């Protein structure tokens, strides 16, 4: 089961969004991650096990290391899982991630930026960048079964978005600054950003935002971020990944 299905997100009307006015779908790409130095890598430490390595001082357990980098790496993978399980979270701050995120709405941004600790963003400026080319994030309406109603809802959303662009351009023509003009934009307008977070903060975000009580768009984004983080640091996130890819009706 994939993560989105695991958390109970469906997307039955994806095809209907294809030709909708300036629709943009979300995308998430991990573009950088903390990497140990050459010397450390040669001794078997990588991004996935760096946190565990730093925690070894806590118990002076470096003596368990051998001359075999592979064996050391294996020991630290196990230790990573143990740290997570115990809630020994501070070493997870050693690993920092940079994601390139596109196609998320202003409505999502308002929720996402409530997270403050170990986390940051560089968003496209709506004060300085002209909004005439804005794209929009459309709802999945996955809780509606009647296709005709979904078409009608998407048409309403399109109408609002088209009107917003028209009004924005008109305001600028009349002499409004971009920062005053932007106030006609609906919260569905899409943004592009770089997102920075350490592994501890990411785990916290995932616990809150993959949960069924969170809003669907931020749940979808969290699933995409987790999928990316799993590629390089599986042992830091495997518990959350397994929780949401294992059938469990309770989580939906
Ligand atoms: C399902 C859901 C519904 C929500 N609904 C609403 C809503 O209706 N209205 C609304 O305004 N917000 C709402 N929120 C936002 C929520 O209140 C938090 O602001 C947001 O989830 C960020 O969480 P956080 O503070 O734990 O994260 P972070 O800011 O990243 O903080 C991480 C951790 O650091 C500690 N910490 C952070 N700041 C402080 C501090 N000042 N003092 C002491 N310890 C601190 C806490 O342990 C915290 O968990 C909702 C969140 C969720 C997940």
UniProtKB/TrEMBL annotation:
<dbReference type="GO" id="GO:0004799">
    <property type="term" value="F:thymidylate synthase activity"/>
</dbReference>
<dbReference type="GO" id="GO:0006231">
    <property type="term" value="P:dTMP biosynthetic process"/>
</dbReference>
<protein>
    <recommendedName>
        <fullName>FAD-dependent thymidylate synthase</fullName>
        <ecNumber>2.1.1.148</ecNumber>
    </recommendedName>
</protein>
<keyword id="KW-0808">Transferase</keyword>
<dbReference type="GO" id="GO:0050797">
    <property type="term" value="F:thymidylate synthase (FAD) activity"/>
</dbReference>
<dbReference type="InterPro" id="IPR003669">
    <property type="entry name" value="Thymidylate_synthase_ThyX"/>
</dbReference>
<keyword id="KW-0489">Methyltransferase</keyword>
<dbReference type="Pfam" id="PF02511">
    <property type="entry name" value="Thy1"/>
</dbReference>
<dbReference type="GO" id="GO:0032259">
    <property type="term" value="P:methylation"/>
</dbReference>
<dbReference type="GO" id="GO:0050660">
    <property type="term" value="F:flavin adenine dinucleotide binding"/>
</dbReference>
<dbReference type="InterPro" id="IPR036098">
    <property type="entry name" value="Thymidylate_synthase_ThyX_sf"/>
</dbReference>
<dbReference type="GO" id="GO:0070402">
    <property type="term" value="F:NADPH binding"/>
</dbReference>
């Amino acid at each position: 089961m994939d993560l989105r299905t695991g958390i109970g997100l469906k997307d039955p009307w994806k095809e209907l969004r294809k030709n909708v006015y300036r629709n943009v779908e979300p995308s998430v790409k991990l573009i950088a991650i903390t990497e140990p130095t050459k010397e450390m890598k040669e001794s078997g430490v990588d991004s996935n096990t760096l946190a565990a390595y730093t925690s070894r001082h806590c118990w002076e357990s470096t003596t368990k290391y051998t001359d075999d980098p592979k064996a050391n790496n294996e020991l630290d993978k196990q230790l990573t899982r143990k740290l997570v399980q115990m809630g020994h979270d501070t070493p997870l701050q050693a690993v920092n991630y940079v994601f390139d995120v596109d196609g998320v709405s202003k409505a999502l941004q308002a929720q996402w930026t409530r997270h403050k600790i170990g986390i940051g963003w560089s968003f496209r400026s709506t004060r300085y960048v002209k909004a005439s080319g804005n794209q929009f994030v459309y709802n999945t309406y996955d809780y509606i079964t009647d296709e005709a109603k979904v078409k009608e809802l998407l048409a309403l959303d399109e109408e609002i978005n088209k009107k917003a662009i028209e009004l924005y351009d008109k305001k600028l023509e009349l002499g409004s600054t971009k920062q005053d003009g932007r106030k006609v934009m609906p919260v569905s307008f899409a943004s592009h950003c770089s997102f920075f977070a350490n592994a501890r903060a990411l785990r916290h975000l995932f616990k809150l935002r993959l949960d069924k009580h969170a809003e669907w768009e931020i749940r979808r984004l969290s699933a995409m971020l987790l999928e990316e983080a799993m590629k390089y640091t599986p042992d830091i996130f495997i518990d959350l990944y397994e929780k949401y890819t294992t059938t469990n009706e309770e989580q939906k």
